[in-house]
Structure formats: structure tokens, C-alpha cells
Amino acid sequence: MKICTICAGEFDGTEAPSMYAEAGEWLAGEVWQDAGQLCPRCLENRAKLAMMYCHEYNS
What we know:
Helix content: 40-55%
Distance between the termini: 35 Å
Low-confidence stretches: none
């Protein structure tokens, strides 16, 4: 089990990611350099917030 660096929740990282979690994984690796450290829920939330507020990544 891993601990999410944002919400401190436990996750195993083996579940199939949703479409938003996949986008969050890309952002974690390419933008914030914290790939593998966030739970699926936080990855999804990051992707949704990036779509709303980080217009430079929406092209």
C-alpha cells in the first residue's frame, strides 16, 4: 500500500484508472513530477481542476 501525498489516503495502485485518473497521471509525470505518489481520487480531481483552470494544458 502507498500513501497519497495530497490526501494521505492509502491506495494500492493496481486498480484500472478512469479516464480522468489517466489524465491526472500524465499531469503528475509531466507537470508536477509526483507520478506514483497520488491516489486515483486525487489524480481524477487534479485532472478535472486542470481542465477548468489550467488552460495552457487544454490545447
